[in-house]
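Whether sequence alone determines local backbone shape is best considered at the level of individual chains. The sequence in question and its structure tokens are set out directly beneath this paragraph.

===
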Amino acid sequence: MMTETPKSLPKWILIVSGLFALMELMVSVTLCFSPQSVLETVDLNAKGVDYVVYMWAARQFALGFIFGFATINYTQRVIMNKTVSKFLQSLLKKAKISSRLSFTI
């Protein structure tokens, strides 16, 4: 019985994981410096909106950092969990269910 885990991941998984990490980091920076380009339909002058925007930016930065760290260190479990959660989030957004559920690992 084989109990060892493989020491390398396929290149395409590392590429997709790296792209997810970059995407998360870019969204974070964009939310901090130009939130109107991401949030076109939100009144950014309303009370408390800037606080929510910065919280979202911090969340995106943390997710990007985790994804990037897992990609660099070839942490298979984290990469697969994050990839599956991203896939589920995109499916739920398409189905308009994501506002009720949160799949963050």
The first helix runs from residue 11 to 33. Helices lie at 11-33, 35-38, 49-72, 76-94. The CA atoms of residues 18 and 68 lie 6 Å apart. Residues 11-94 form one domain.
